TrEMBL record:
Region of interest called Disordered, as start-end residue ranges on this chain: 1-94, 113-135
Biased composition (Acidic residues): 12-34, 54-66, 119-130
Region forming the signal peptide: none
InterPro entries attached to this UniProt entry: MACPF (IPR020864)
Domain annotation MACPF: ranges: 214-333
The species this protein was found in: Plasmodium falciparum (isolate Palo Alto / Uganda)
Basic and acidic residues biased stretches: 84-94
Protein name: MACPF domain-containing protein
Length: 610
């Protein structure tokens, strides 16, 4: 009888192969023996056929059937053993490849080999660790992996060389450096998350937040000289960029008249674009929708941080002397690379509160058309102009619109001319060293009761307000009402009163993944002192006071008296002083004719100090 021996799962691949060869040889031997036996039986039957009876023939047939069955069973048994050995080998290779993803087992084997000549006590400890490792494998699912984006926790970041927008020739922010805080990883109960599908740092836990994903940024650069040339030629900068590159520049508006975009098409301007892709696999052509779709499918497996929180490494120092030394080292390091500490801060200055604190507020009120200039060396960051009439019949303020000031320009000019005698325009803008990137001004007008706007590109509101008004009646100026738009929200809406004919909404939206400080802002929009003008109270005809909440201070804002006889009476339309905790406005007490009406209005953005 032939015996078959199967190798255990702990034996090597060579041993399994040898066993398969042995089994195959044994099978061949069995077949030869069976064939020889059959041949001998046939010879004996021919020689002794005269002496055998029917019973012998039946026995012979039964023996043949038994021999054939035995042969089939042995062949099947050998085939099953071969398949089982092959399956065991494939499973072992697959398990080893899975563990090599984290390189934990290989590192442990290297340490064991390196310490092979140590004391017996050390060898026994290493053996125990190996046993624990094998036991830990039973806890882990077959698809254990590190949660995408977890590799960036605790790494260093160089502010001098970092660029949150990314670089054109790289899919990663060049500011990232080597690991600073090292985390311990282990294939153990402590190192596996509760879902048994992802690793987590030992003595730590994972809270999944949408901080890592993919982003495509399109940067359009237009020289100042080209902007000035476009204005001289009567060409809208926004419309020209839309025609050249397909969509508007950062800091632009979603509602700009592009009727002049065809003027001077032959004129060439200094403009260029740059596309930066962060996260996912490299993309060939972002202008093709199918390429964008394919790229979006790779972001899940290859995400990049687009909403990072940086903490100075000095925060981990216990000694004040070490922190002071760190500050000195930063100054030395920055100057070594040709940058001053001020330049270093400016490179990463994404705090919207600092930007607005250093900006200049400009206001103006006059008959249309209206124009205002930024201070020398400053450009428009955002702003609007609003045309109104509180006396004449304007057919429910038809043709009386709100416009945005074009970001990046050194002035703001309304395109609306004068239609009636008592037309008046109000202009407000904020000027800074440069336009606000990753911002969008949005406006909306409506003659229906409900009016709403929504920030594009998943942006959030930085500031904004709604205003409802009317015309054609002697007391139209009495019915002017305000609505604040809350910073951090995605949309703003208002419901118009029955006394109003038209509503306007203006909001400035920003990308809060780039700009910080939005959550530390409050917006105040007030109206009051509605009623008749009292001529006997010069410059004290009613008062409206706006106070910043949370002990805050004013960053920007304006105060205005909407008056029946504007622009022919001297009424207030002034900026709210920065850094103060409140802003107030008084009625002028001026009037033309028998009776005039008024409303006081305050709008201001405040920095919270609590």
């Amino acid at each position: 009888m032939v015996h078959y021996v199967a190798g255990s799962s702990s034996e090597t691949d060579n041993e399994s192969d040898e066993e398969e060869n042995d089994s195959s040889d044994n099978n061949n031997s069995d077949e030869e023996q069976i064939e020889n036996s059959n041949n001998n039986n046939s010879d004996e039957e021919q020689n002794d056929s005269s002496s055998n009876d029917n019973n012998d023939e039946e026995n012979e047939e039964q023996d043949d059937v038994m021999n054939n069955d035995q042969k089939d069973k042995k062949i099947k048994h050998s085939f099953n053993l071969a398949n089982e050995s092959k399956h065991t080998k494939e499973e072992r290779v697959k398990e080893e490849k899975k563990l090599k993803i984290y390189d934990f087992i290989n590192d442990k084997e290297k340490r064991l080999n390196f310490n092979g000549d140590q004391k017996d006590e050390d060898n026994e400890e290493n053996d125990d660790k190996d046993e624990n490792t094998l036991e830990n494998r039973n806890i882990i699912s077959k698809h254990t992996s590190v949660f995408p984006g977890l590799y960036f926790i605790g790494i260093g970041y160089n502010l001098l060389f970092g660029n949150p927008l990314g670089e054109a020739d790289s899919l990663i922010d060049p500011g990232y450096r080597a690991q600073i805080y090292l985390m311990e990883w282990a294939l153990s109960k402590e190192g596996i998350a509760n879902d048994l599908s992802t690793l987590q740092p030992v003595n730590g836990w994972i809270r999944k937040e949408n901080a890592c994903r993919g982003k495509i940024t399109k940067i359009i650069n237009v020289s100042t000289s080209s902007i000035e040339q476009m204005k001289k030629n009567g060409v809208s900068v926004k419309a020209k960029i839309q025609a050249q590159f397909g969509f508007g520049s950062a800091g632009g508006s979603t509602d700009v008249n592009s009727s002049n975009s065809s003027a001077n098409d032959e004129q060439s301007y200094d403009m260029n674009e740059q596309l930066i892709v962060i996260g996912g696999n490299p993309i060939k052509d972002v202008t093709k929708e199918e390429n964008l779709f394919e790229w979006s499918k790779t972001v899940t497996n290859h995400p990049m941080p687009i909403n990072i929180k940086l903490t100075p490494i000095s925060d981990s120092f216990d000694s004040d002397d070490l922190k002071e030394s760190y500050d000195k080292a930063i100054i030395y390091y920055s100057r070594l690379y040709g940058l001053s500490p001020h330049d270093t801060m400016q490179k990463d200055d994404k705090d919207i509160i600092k930007i607005l604190t250093n900006a200049d507020t400009v206001t103006k009120n006059s008959a249309p058309p209206i124009n205002a200039q930024c201070p020398h060396g400053k450009v428009v960051m955002f702003g609007f102009s609003l045309k109104q009439n509180f006396w004449d019949n304007t057919n429910a303020l038809k043709g009386y619109n709100i416009e945005v000031c074009e970001a990046g320009s050194n002035s703001c000019t309304s395109k609306q001319g004068s239609s009636n005698k008592y037309d008046t325009s109000y202009l407000y803008m904020e000027c800074g060293d440069q336009p606000l990137p990753f911002s969008e001004q949005v406006i909306s007008e409506s003659t229906s009761t409900y009016n709403t706007v929504k920030c594009p590109n998943d942006y959030s509101i930085l500031l904004g307000f709604g205003i409802s008004s009317s015309s054609g009646r002697i007391n139209s100026a009495e019915y002017v009402y305000s609505t604040p738009c809350i910073p951090g929200m995605k949309s703003c809406s208002l419901n118009m009163n029955n006394d109003n004919q038209k509503s306007y909404i203006y909001v400035l939206c920003v990308d809060t993944t780039i700009w910080s400080g939005v959550n530390n802002l409050s917006l105040v929009a007030l109206d009051g002192a509605h009623g008749k003008v009292n001529r006997s109270k010069k410059y004290s005809d009613g008062e409206l006071v706006g106070t910043c909440p949370l002990d805050g201070t004013v960053l920007t804002g304006f105060k205005v008296e909407f008056h029946t006889s504007s622009p022919y009476v001297q009424t207030a339309f002034e900026k709210c002083a920065k850094s103060l905790k409140a802003c107030s406005v008084h009625g002028s007490g001026h009037a033309i004719g028998i009776q005039n009406f008024k409303s006081l209005f305050i709008y201001m953005l405040c920095k919270n100090n609590k």
